Amino acid sequence: xxxxxxxxxxxxxxxxxxxxxxxxxxxxxxxxxxxxxxxxxxxxxxxxxxxxxxxxxxxxxxxxxxxxxxxxxxxxxxxxxxxxxxxxxxxxxxxxxxxxxxxxxxxxxxx
Length: 111
Prior knowledge:
- By secondary structure, the chain is mainly α.
- Helix content is about 70%, strand content about 0%.
- It has a single domain (about 10-110), classed as Serine Threonine Protein Phosphatase 5, Tetratricopeptide repeat, CATH 1.25.40.
């Protein structure tokens, strides 16, 4: 909710609690979702290195069919790359990654 109303610092507090709890339990499904949202909250606070770390953790923990996590981490990653001026061209025909990459590109300016 806090992310939706533009308060990423408050969102981080709540998401960090969930992140730590799911991590401690070894729970991967909810963990990846929370980690991707935490990455977004960190990005929105211009804490880019921390956001990148959360993206890497979500990416590593996600299952092969976890499309939601794929879309969320790739969206935030595209924003990070754009912020750093390193947004690469999408390779043609790379399957489901292309769609998630496009979602990331479309949302770069969306905040």
